[in-house]
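Task: fold both queries, return tokens.
Query 1:
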Amino acid sequence: MSISLVKGQKIDLTKNNSGLKKMLVGLGWDPVEQKKSFFGLLGSSLPDVDVDASVIMLRNDKLTSKEDVIFFGNLKSKCGGVAHMGDNLTGGGDGDDEQILIDLAKIPQDVNKLIFVTNIYECIRRKQSFGMIQNAFIRIADDSSKNIAMFNLTEDYNGKTALIVGELYRHNSEWKFNAIGEGTQDTSLGDILRKYSN
């Protein structure tokens, strides 16, 4: 049975499910319809908001190598434990917009956290923020695609250009998930990475 998470909630993933080694993390969103209102131009349109999902692998809570950032420009971690399935440029369609496969058995022992973040590509030039996005979520499923947990991001993220969505982290020998849902004004993935590099 899938657990519906609220912001700040933490759950055990492996404590009562020792067989869970591979999982799918799906991230999804929809563009908000923009109403046209210029002298009789009726109808609405969906803006092309290019949201990029990325995973930051931390060692001792720090980013130590650019190879530990998995995104559309680096689709697979060196260890093979994190694989990004590709970039969605519009957010159109139902279900997951971007998917990341996790193989816990391949994650090096010194990696203690996987941070899941999203940011809007070229948000400054395009004058876009997460206020133009709705129905954002992150879900965790097992390797048979059965949902384990779902976190719907329901806050007003207007003016925010990046989201720290959640994190998988080690606690003793188990893996847990923390639903974060924190909006930031970072304008690129590089800006987000600086938070974890200092």
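Query 1 returned. Query 2:
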Amino acid sequence: MKLLRTLAGLAALGTLGISCIAQTPPVVDVVEVKAADVPILTEYSAQTYARNAVEVRGRVEGYVEKWMFRPGQEVAAGQPLYELDLRPLDAATQTAAGNLRQSEADLEFARKQVSLLQAQANLAVAQANLLKARQDSDRLTPLVEQDAAPRQDLETATAALAANDAAVRAAQVQVDQTRLQTDTQIQSVEGKVEALRGALKTAQLNLEYGTIRAPISGLIGDTTVNLGGLVNPGATAPLTTIEPLDPIWVRFKVSEAQYLTFTRGGKLTPGKTPPLELVLADNSTHPYKGRIENSLNQVDSRTGTLEVQAAFPNPKHTLLPGQFGKIRFQTDLQKGALAIPQRAVLQIQNTQSVYTVGPDSKIQVRAVKTGDRVGELWIIEQGLKPGDRVVVEGLLSVQPGIVVTPRLWAGRK
């Protein structure tokens, strides 16, 4: 009997304890609704790419003797990538240099005009002989008239004068012809020298091209020609490719309606666009802001979208072409907006509601109308006013009309 009374007493104490626990108001986390200027952010799926990617190709034919990079390595502009067998190219350069020296010697000889000088000397001799013949004729003419000299001597002198005059004319023709030939020869050899100088420059360039260098800085890909392979300037496939990484380019697409809205607001004007954020696949944000640089010149008729292209600084080369992410930027500023955490909004079919805590600490249900989503917040267009306390944590332990103990929400848990 005494045992029954003891058990009954314990049961009564347990019931009393349960009753006391049930009457303790549950604790809920709340936020106080405040009006604030909220930037409206828009996100678009995006992909990185390298705008100025370069295909590395050989300019001369030859066999690869050295391969001086690793695939995936960062290379600098001008850095040697391949070295071909330079012996044939060096031999061609020496041959071109020898031909040029020979031609320059021919030009020097032509410029000395040896043949012309000889012809001019012959002309001078003929002119001297003509002068002497004229002097003899002039001296004998008065002597013959005075019968002081034989007429035969005058006739001989006259014939010599005529012969020397013809010789002078012939020598003059020879000088003119030789001068013309010499000038023609000089011009011809000069042209040959210029052509051979060009051939030597071409051979020297080909020798330089035997070392294939990086045309730009960036990340280099794999090689298509290994050691001992033949490099052909006319090959379809490049030797390798180089992707510049700074800046990295990002493409994303906007709808036709968004394009018109952004254009009227100047948001697609290069240099005037808002700064862009790039959210990566792991939800981290690229530390550098980007800018819209340009858009394509027509809307894709299949999708009704327009491609927009932006550039992001990438000094540490952490971003690679082909990565997916999201572009985020501010498209509007809603002044005096009421924003609450998304987790506070209850969605039941087509209706949205929140739990609020009234002045008497009782739970109330409010139907709300949401607007834009900003990060982890909803902008509330109807149903709340500044000062309302909205339940964020503890939603499963409350129901309309019960008394709760509200405390200020400390943030995401």
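Both queries returned. Flag for query 2: Residues 87-209 form a domain with the Helix Hairpins fold (CATH 1.10.287.620).
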